[in-house]
């Protein structure tokens, strides 16, 4: 069924928000960095050269002692300190072979060896300067431990480069045992990535971030692993990591934006699918239902037969509830009437038509089509049922069948103004504005009293680029309908799009004034006024206050809730914004609406996680949460 006028207004309202949201979304858009392993720092001293220095010092001291014992003979001991050979001789055969590398020796260090280094280092820190000799030896131990760790890491890097990941892991692990450094954990995580051991990737990256919370490479690597793990929780955590990496990295890498968009889309799409499959269908706000129902010219309900059945009486109650705008009971009563049995084909067809209408509004397109098929079978001459059937086919992505339905309705009633109006709505939604204009004109010629034909004609003219024609049409509509809130609301939207802010606010004020007596009250003019004030003066406080009032009047106004959420987000009232986006997701009718709401909710939650985990960085960037 074609989009009702107020629903079209809601779409326009959503578009006006996007200009300023796109800038703010930078704060929640993450940037993916390439996942590579590099040597994180030069190795200044090798383990081997350090051992040589120690050995040379010992030999030199021993030579001096020998010379003194021998009476200080000239030349004695000169050159006696020789460099240890880098080769060894086997016990048998005298065959020389290369000695094991220093990193291989270090790989064989026991935990006891490492603990001795730690104890010596602790002693030096506990009593510095108490004994020069002890301090020198302890400093040697500390340097040996750190340099051993670097040697092990360098060997691990070489093995990684040659794709010997398991061997590289052994060296990185021993390096960590010698001295914990974030880069050691991150490099080992890279090995686990290539071995597809994703849980270990997450574990090691988390350890690296525990040592250096701003380690962007570890954030990106953990985010990638979590994305590959793929559950809802892991996807959300991946989004948080990508977001943090992006903000810390100053948004310097465009690939990060691509990563976060990918993760947000996947997370929102999968969650939306689950939610739609499990939640019960429900009616949207009364304002939306009213807008849809008034998109058709009113018709008198079928009269009761002389001897009414129970189903006939229930049907009459359903129409009475509909007239009272008690839509929940109306839908229930239409269903009960059909189940109880209705005595005439005309009345049964009308009941099926109305139940289908409510099912369509509740996003049950398949159920609506089944009822309309039955309605047109029971009474093929009901043109309105064919029009509604056309809209359902459009919703199901079957435009050819939709156009055939419109043609069938015109065969039944060539002068039916609703057929032309709703076919015009289809062309409007698909962007065929010239064809929409033709349909609206024909509909208004057949029934000039229907105001929405004239409104949509003016809007279509504007969309087609005929701005002046649209303005003239609205001026005429205002003159002929000086107290119609819909005329002023649509006119205000056009003026707002033209950046005639004060004129737009004036139009919205009139729409608000004349809508006060409506039941249910249409609060879209209030939401539009809030946006106009924000765009014109950046007056967040006033815009927020007006939007809150609108949501208080109509808590089910999805556009109002979504707009309020974005106004809160723009003011860094992140926690409250999350709640509003969550509410918008609960109210979403269709899958695209739900995906959009969930995307904003997840992005905002990711920003909230950044504020929690990086308060100092957030404060420096002006992202500190204000509420």
From TrEMBL:
TPR repeats, residue ranges: 149-182, 383-416, 417-450, 485-518
PROSITE patterns, per the entry: TPR (PS50005), TPR_REGION (PS50293)
An example Gene Ontology CC term for this record: mitochondrial outer membrane
Segments of this protein annotated with the region Disordered: 55-106
Pfam families noted in UniProt: TPR_11, TPR_16
GO molecular function terms noted in the UniProt entry: mitochondrion targeting sequence binding; protein transmembrane transporter activity
Localization per record: Mitochondrion outer membrane
Biological processes per GO annotation: protein import into mitochondrial matrix; protein insertion into mitochondrial inner membrane
Topology term for the membrane: Single-pass membrane protein
Keywords: Membrane, Mitochondrion, Mitochondrion outer membrane, Repeat, TPR repeat, Transmembrane, Transmembrane helix
InterPro entries recorded: TPR-like_helical_dom_sf, TPR_rpt
Composition-biased stretches (Low complexity): 79-98
SMART domains (alphabetical): TPR (SM00028)
Family: Belongs to the Tom70 family.
The protein's name in its UniProt record: Uncharacterized protein
Organism this protein belongs to: Rhodotorula taiwanensis
């Amino acid at each position: 069924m074609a989009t009702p006028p107020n629903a079209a207004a809601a779409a326009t309202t959503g578009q006006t928000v996007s200009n300023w949201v796109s800038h703010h979304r930078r704060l929640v858009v993450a940037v993916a960095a390439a996942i590579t392993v590099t040597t994180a720092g030069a190795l200044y001293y090798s383990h081997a050269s350090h051992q040589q220095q120690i050995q040379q010092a010992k030999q030199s001291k021993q030579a001096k002692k020998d010379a003194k014992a021998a009476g200080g003979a000239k030349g004695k001991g000169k050159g006696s300190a020789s460099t240890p050979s880098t080769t060894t001789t086997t016990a048998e055969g005298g065959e020389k072979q290369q000695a094991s590398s220093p990193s291989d020796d270090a790989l064989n260090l026991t935990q006891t060896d490492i603990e001795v280094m730690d104890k010596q280092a602790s002693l030096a820190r506990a009593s510095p300067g108490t004994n020069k000799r002890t301090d020198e030896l302890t400093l040697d131990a500390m340097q040996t431990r750190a340099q051993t760790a670097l040697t092990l890491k360098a060997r691990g890097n070489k093995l990684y480069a040659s794709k010997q990941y398991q061997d590289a892991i052994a060296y990185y692990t021993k390096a960590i045992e010698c001295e914990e450094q974030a880069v050691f954990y991150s490099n080992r995580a890279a090995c686990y990535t290539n071995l597809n051991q994703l849980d270990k990737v997450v574990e090691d990256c988390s350890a690296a971030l525990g040592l250096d919370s701003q380690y962007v490479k570890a954030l990106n690597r953990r985010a990638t692993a979590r994305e590959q793990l793929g559950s809802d929780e892991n996807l959300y955590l991946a989004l948080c990591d990508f977001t943090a990496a992006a903000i810390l990295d100053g948004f310097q890498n465009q690939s990060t934006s691509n990563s976060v968009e990918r993760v947000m889309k996947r997370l929102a799409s999968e969650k939306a699918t689950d939610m739609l499959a499990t939640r019960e269908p429900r009616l949207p706000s009364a304002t939306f239902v009213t807008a849809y129902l008034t998109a058709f010219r009113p018709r008198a309900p079928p009269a009761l037969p002389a001897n009414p059945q129970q189903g006939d009486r229930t049907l009459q109650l359903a129409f009475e509830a509909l007239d009272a705008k008690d839509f929940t009971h109306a839908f229930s009563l239409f269903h009960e009437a059909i189940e109880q049995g209705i005595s005439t084909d005309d009345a049964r067809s009308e009941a099926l038509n109305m139940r289908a209408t409510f099912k369509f509004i509740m996003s049950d397109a398949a159920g609506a089509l089944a009822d309309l098929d039955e309605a047109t079978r029971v009474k093929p001459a009901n043109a309105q049922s064919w029009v509604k059937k056309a809209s359902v086919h459009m919703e199901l992505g079957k435009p050819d069948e939709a156009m055939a339905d419109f043609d069938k309705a015109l065969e039944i009633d060539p002068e039916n103004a609703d057929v032309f109006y709703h076919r015009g709505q289809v062309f409007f939604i698909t962007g065929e504005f010239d064809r929409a204009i033709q349909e609206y004109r024909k509909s208004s010629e057949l029934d000039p009293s229907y105001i929405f034909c004239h409104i949509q004609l003016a809007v279509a003219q504007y969309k087609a680029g005929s701005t002046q024609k649209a303005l003239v049409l609205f001026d005429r509509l205002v003159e002929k309908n000086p107290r119609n809130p819909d005329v002023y609301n649509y006119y205000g939207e056009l003026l707002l799009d033209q950046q005639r802010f004060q004129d737009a606010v004036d139009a919205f004020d009139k729409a608000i004034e004349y809508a006060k007596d409506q039941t249910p009250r249409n609060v879209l003019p209030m939401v539009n006024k809030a946006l106009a004030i924000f765009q014109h003066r950046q007056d967040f406080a006033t815009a927020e206050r007006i939007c809150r009032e609108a949501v208080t009047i109509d808590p089910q106004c999805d556009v109002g809730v979504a707009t309020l959420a974005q106004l809160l987000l723009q003011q860094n009232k992140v926690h409250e914004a999350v709640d509003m986006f969550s509410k918008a997701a609960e109210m979403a009718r269709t899958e695209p609406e739900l995906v959009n709401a969930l995307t904003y909710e997840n992005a905002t939650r990711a920003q909230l996680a950044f504020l929690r985990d990086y308060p100092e960085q957030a404060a420096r960037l002006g992202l500190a949460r204000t509420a």
